[in-house]
Amino acid sequence: AADKIRLIPQDFFAELCEQIIQHLNHKIPGVNTAELCQRIQTSGVEINIADLAKIANVLSFLFSTAARNTLSTEELITTLGSGTSTLPKHAVQVIRHVWNEQGKAIAVSEDATNVATVGQFVDMKWKLGVAMSSDTCRSLKYPYVTVTLTVADPSGQITDKSFEMTIPQFKNFIRQFKEMASVLETV
């Protein structure tokens, strides 16, 4: 991970660290690595989304472990320095600054033993479509609904999950949402 961190400019690395801290403080549902990766690539840096996601996971583990052990800034930096692969100087400076400014908030707000083990629902989009024809069938003309769910996994990575449903399936889907809403109103 240290080799890939060297590629990331300091301002983008700082933004990634800030987003991870905000996620650990439950202020945002997750880190949008796809959007951040695109911006980094636009700046001329060659990095792929899988590598950026690994870096985000490592940083999330680093910050949550430091919070669980209530490490001071100096203890965290000393621990980082004792690793087998050394982080670039700019990364250590960013981690020091972010932890010094916001690390205590994690230690206070997050009971590290209660880390969520499931993802978090962020957004849902849907669209209605009609299949007109295909290679094997000249005239289909059946409607369908495409649903895209945006979900943040436990590490904070935001991903989109898409699926299609027939109209009867979509009606059942809506009915189940209405049932959930009525149950939640009674709580």
Automatic annotation (TrEMBL):
PROSITE patterns: COMM (PS51269). Residues 120-187 form the COMM domain. It comes from the Eukaryota. Coiled coil: none annotated. One of its GO terms (molecular function) is NF-kappaB binding. Belongs to the COMM domain-containing protein 6 family. Scaffold protein in the commander complex that is essential for endosomal recycling of transmembrane cargos; the commander complex is composed of the CCC subcomplex and the retriever subcomplex. May modulate activity of cullin-RING E3 ubiquitin ligase (CRL) complexes. Down-regulates activation of NF-kappa-B. Inhibits TNF-induced NFKB1 activation. PANTHER family: COMM DOMAIN-CONTAINING PROTEIN 4-8 FAMILY MEMBER, COMM DOMAIN-CONTAINING PROTEIN 6. This is COMM domain-containing protein 6. It comes from Drymodes brunneopygia.
